[in-house]
Amino acid sequence: MKTIVLKRGNHSYIVKETVKVLSSGGLVVFPSDTVYGLLADATNKYAINKLIEVKNRPFGKVISIFVDGWGMLDKQVEILSSQKQVLHEILPGAFTVILPSKHQVDSRLESEKNTLGIRLIKYLLINQLVRAFGKPLTATSANLSGKQPHYQLSTFQKELSSKKTQLIDLAIDAGNLPRNRPSTVIDLTKANIKVLRQGDRSVDKIYISKSEKETKKIALSIFNQNKKNVVKKPMVFIISGELGAGKTVFIKGIGEELGINNIISPTYTIAYEYPLKDKYFNKLSHFDLYQIDSAQDLEKIGIEEVLKPNNLLMFEWGEKIGNLIKVINKRAYIVYINIEYITEGSRKLRVSYNS
Amino acid sequence: MKILAIDTSADETAVAVVEGRRIISNVIYSQIDIHKKWGGIYPTLAKQAHEERIDGVVEKALKRFMIYDLRFKNIERYMDGIDAIAVTQGPGLAIALEVGIRKAKELAIQYQKPLIAVNHLEGHLYSCFAQNRFGKPTYEIKFPYLGLIVSGGHTEIVLIKGHLQYQVLGETLDDAAGEALDKAAKLLGLSYPGGPVIEQLAQEIGQIDKYHFPRPMLQSRNLDFSFSGLKTSFYYYVRELPEKEKIKSIKYLVSSFQEAVFDVIVKKTESAIKQTGVTNIIIGGGVCANLYLRKRLRAMVKKNNGAIIFPPFKYLTGDNAAMIGIVAGYKAKANQFVKNSDHLDRVTRMSL
């Protein structure tokens, strides 16, 4: 491994030497805005082979790339115009952005979902280098997989076996890098889940609520009207509505009547369950599908297990229930609730049933 | 006493071996590790995923423990060095908790070890007392403490008078702080995980509070939190903004939102100090990885002549089993074992 020490005045020499090595499929240890990185031509199969060998990187673990500007970024990933505007506000910066890949780089850098991590940073030397090279470079940290990244070239070199040292062609020593944190990852890939549409449901009734208290009251009255009709089936509320519309408030209204006063939204745990002492119901399962992004995940959160008589199921972000609605339809009594903003303080609640 | 601890409360399969406050081995199998970084899908909160991983993670934790304790050269006998099994009983996702509980029961019966059930929230509080395997850091535990838990799923203030003695002084009535941050980020198209992205963007503009969003519950005298009103107000404000301006102001929007959330956390904690006279603070949960929140809390606590302890290692802010093991050690001392392991069941919405 040849080493060049970064000095004032030798930047263009370093760029020239590094481009030479990268063009012939070589690996280079290079300073960056965060830690020392291991650079390789992201489109060169042999270079990526070497990179994976040095890093011990398990197959299927992905590697992000450096681009020098928006032109190169556009060639690598698919961006919606709305996303582009957001990205222009935050890049270049200390982020790694995940987007659908256009498959211009070695496929081993991409995820199983065909996404690619992109870095457009504020570090002049890297930008000059990528520009001179004309193609994206790998932006992985110079360390073995699972080990800490390095802020000093020498600590990385110590970690390497002699065989691995031979695989690396060039190292640029910029001394101790400032201990900036690794980049923050922003995932801009879109969720892939079927959304439930109004379809052939008949709207039964519309309520207007002017306060949380009123929403709770309305919820309770809808619950009471319907529970008599539930015979030997679970009862399911599928509640939809935008962020902050009052979905949790609705559920609290019913919960409080059933003696549960500590309902909070289970956004991260997906579901909370509460035992009930009620004539009709033994258990309340409160689901929040906000975090669910794939049909596979939806199948695995245990909905069918609680879809039993005498159980009460409530779904927030119920529009994401997708195909599971067929199973629920067969086995349960369903009430659909949609909550809409009228003003900041008032809401429209629409109740509907399968027709 | 060496304890093997298991936590499967959400998406991470975590197993650790601890002795007292010392973490001897700690293994976290995290989907987040992969997905947060690359995949673009959320952690599969799957029973199946936990089931597939749990045996391997237990074995890995034990192997790392073996390397430390050379008396046990034979991998077949690695359980010999373990005195008790601990497991998270709740709160968490039912089907995820079940996997850990079942494994813990299985190990307890097979190797005839006592079983200890731990509340995940106790774990977050005790994460502040953790030490590495060499016993660092060394500070003594001095009760009483005010405990603050701020994570994606929880926001609460707890008075801790002694080991395992909790009194919840206030908690969120709707959304947790981390959840509010994530949702605000998502609203602006910044996606998951929102907290770290907001932290970074807000830092770039020096945490300016341009919009002064409402500080929910600051007027009320109790110590409960509520973030859903703030969320609604943010949603409404952003919705009314012209698209161009929204994007131009993105850093100012998230910074102002973060400021509102942190203001509430800091001020409620300060109220708790004033109400109880307790000035020593411990804090756990994912949101306390935010360095700006740490800075603000430190300043507030200093002003009140108190001291604040954060989890000493970064991995302790997220979900892990080491913190469960540390709690379990104190439970063992207090003779709080599970009497009949057949009856141990998950409690998804468990309180302190």
Number of strands of chain B: 10
Anisotropy-based shape of chain A:
elongated
Unreliable stretches of chain A: none
CATH topology of the largest domain in chain A: DHBP synthase
Mean pLDDT rating of chain A:
90
Q: Helix and strand layout, with pairings?
A:
The complex is a heterodimer of chains A (355) and B (352).
Chain A: E1 2-5, H1 11-23, E2 28-30, E3 37-39, H2 45-55, E4 65-66, H3 70-76, H4 81-90, E5 95-100, E6 115-119, H5 124-133, E7 137-138, E8 140-141, H6 153-159, H7 162-167, E9 170-173, E10 184-187, E11 201-209, H8 212-227, E12 235-241, H9 247-257, E13 271-275, E14 283-288, H10 295-299, H11 303-306, E15 311-316, H12 324-331, E16 333-341, E17 347-354
Parallel strand pairs in A: 1-9, 2-9, 4-6, 5-10, 12-15, 12-16, 14-15
Antiparallel strand pairs in A: 2-3, 3-8, 4-7, 5-6, 11-17, 13-14, 16-17
Helix pairs in contact in A: 1-5, 8-9
Chain B: E1 2-7, E2 12-19, E3 22-30, H1 31-39, H2 47-68, E4 84-90, H3 94-111, E5 115-119, H4 120-126, E6 145-150, E7 155-162, E8 165-171, H5 177-187, H6 194-204, H7 228-240, H8 243-248, H9 250-276, E9 280-284, H10 291-303, E10 307-309, H11 322-333
Parallel strand pairs in B: 1-4, 4-5, 6-9, 9-10
Antiparallel strand pairs in B: 1-2, 2-3, 6-7, 7-8
Helix pairs in contact in B: 2-3, 4-11, 5-6, 5-7, 5-9, 6-9
Describe what this molecule looks like in 3D:
The complex is a heterodimer of chains A (355) and B (352). Chain A folds into two domains: 2-187, DHBP synthase, CATH 3.90.870.10; 201-354, P-loop containing nucleotide triphosphate hydrolases (Rossmann fold, 3-Layer(aba) Sandwich), CATH 3.40.50.300. In chain A, 30% of the residues lie in helices and 24% in strands. Chain A is built from twelve helices and 17 strands. In chain A, a hairpin with a 6-residue loop joins β2 (28-30) and β3 (37-39). Chain B has two domains: 2-137 and 315-343, ATPase, nucleotide binding domain (Nucleotidyltransferase, domain 5, 2-Layer Sandwich), CATH 3.30.420.40; 145-311, Nucleotidyltransferase, domain 5. Chain B is built from eleven helices and ten strands. Chain B has helices at 31-39, 47-68, 94-111, 120-126, 177-187, 194-204, 228-240, 243-248, 250-276, 291-303, 322-333; strands at 2-7, 12-19, 22-30, 84-90, 115-119, 145-150, 155-162, 165-171, 280-284, 307-309. In chain B, the strands form two sheets. Chain B has a five-stranded mixed β-sheet, with helices on both faces. A five-stranded mixed β-sheet of chain B has the order 8-7-6-9-10, with helices on both faces. In chain B, a hairpin with a 2-residue loop joins β7 and β8 (165-171). In chain B, α5 crosses α6 (194-204) and α5 (177-187) packs parallel to α7 (228-240). Residues 32-43 of chain B have low confidence and may be disordered. The chains are: A alpha/beta (355), B alpha/beta (352). At the A-B interface, α4, β5, β10 and β13 of A face α1, α2, α5, α6 and α7 of B.
